[in-house]
Amino acid sequence: MKILCSRCAHEVAANTFGLCPHCGGILQPVYSDEAISALAHISPGRGIDRYRATLPTKRAIPFLGEGDTPLIPSRRIGPALGLQFLYFKNEGLNPTGAFKDRAAELVAALAVEAGAKGVLTASSGNASSAISAYCAAAGLPCVILMEPGNPTAKIRQTLATGAQVLLVEGIFSHGPDTLRDLILAVAARSNFYPGFVWAPVNPYILEGIKTISYEIAAHFEGAPNAVIAPVGGGDMLAAQWRGWKELHQAGLIENHPRMHGVQSTSAPPLLEAFKNGADHVATLPYANSKISGINVPFTGDHALMAVQQSGGAVAGVSDDAILAMQRHLAFEEGIWVEPASAAPVAALSQLLEQGAINPNERIVCILSGAGFKDMQLAADEAQAIGEQGTVPFDINTIADLIRS
């Protein structure tokens, strides 16, 4: 394995953090042909340790039951849009309820391999609960820097597995460079591993996330035509694109899928860069979305590169449309997701209209996290039911109240 800049191909020493010192590009591990060829001989199963030949660690990766999440064909939403081959990759069925488990188990392995005292990260919620759990499994202390006002369920989940949570005012509002410098400086001073799940800070962690692509390819025995994912910092989209390129290099797929990213129109850094034909994603002066997990003013250039190289597109949808689709997914498909997960599904009609996807194509929407992660909608409805009062123990009364 070599660590190369994705922009200028400059090689840096292993375990280098941050950006390329030569041009400021995002660093990435690059594996030998022999390592890539091992993908052709992976046995089915859960956990990402079986992919260690194309992961940046030699140490066994902690296993809590993650991976091999289901790829579910749409029963109603797809056909209603004229999409006969729409699938949902339900990452909410990972142990802590989100795709970040794939990153977190690699964080724990890398921290142990580095001899760190513990792990330090900043998170809006899903990464915090995932990293806390896998640190507990690995016997590592964990410190989370968290923005005030995150969903209560995510904070409780993080505390339940023993992490120290520090609420830092404006942790994500000072810009990506300042945030990177803070995390790396505090981690170095404390001898903690910088487990921030964003490639411009730690270029190794998203390697765990690319295993989503491996699993989709194994299910289809090939690649879909398009993959649609929610985008905040951009690691999930960029990681999957890396996975698809490696599968192509291994000869396991003939064609790459187009990678489509979806953001809230209230926090659209990648969308703005894509619309403007830019080669860099500028940091916005605002991020006002109600959708936790994708409410960030900056997205990494690696996500833009994934969209451009794959021939994909970026869509923007309103918070209200995302929240409506969260309800729609639950009612129409029986899948309860957090709001960010509903963003790719909410964008389907727009992508169809733009010609970015076609009715006869095989399309996969990545559902990034489970509904219990951010359950304000369910909490509001539960409160409304409580305010309705009770019903008498009577056959006729109960039967009359049942909705037809």
Task: Describe the secondary structure blueprint for this structure.
Elements: E1 2-5, E2 11-12, E3 27-30, H1 33-37, E4 71-73, H2 77-81, E5 86-90, H3 100-114, E6 118-123, H4 126-138, E7 142-146, H5 152-160, E8 164-167, H6 176-190, E9 192-194, H7 206-209, H8 211-220, E10 226-230, H9 235-249, E11 258-264, H10 269-275, H11 301-310, E12 314-317, H12 319-333, H13 339-346, H14 348-354, E13 363-367, H15 376-386, H16 395-401
Parallel strand pairs: 5-13, 6-7, 6-9, 7-8, 10-11, 10-13, 11-12
Antiparallel strand pairs: 1-2, 1-3, 4-5
Keywords:
404 residues, alpha/beta, Rossmann fold, 4-stranded parallel β-sheet, 13 strands, 39% helix, 14% strand, globular
How would you explain this protein's 3D organization?
- By secondary structure, this protein is of the alpha/beta class.
- It is 39% helix and 14% strand.
- The chain has a domain at 71-96 and 208-379: Rossmann fold (3-Layer(aba) Sandwich), CATH 3.40.50.1100.
- Strand 10, helix 9 and strand 11 form a beta-alpha-beta unit.
- It is globular.
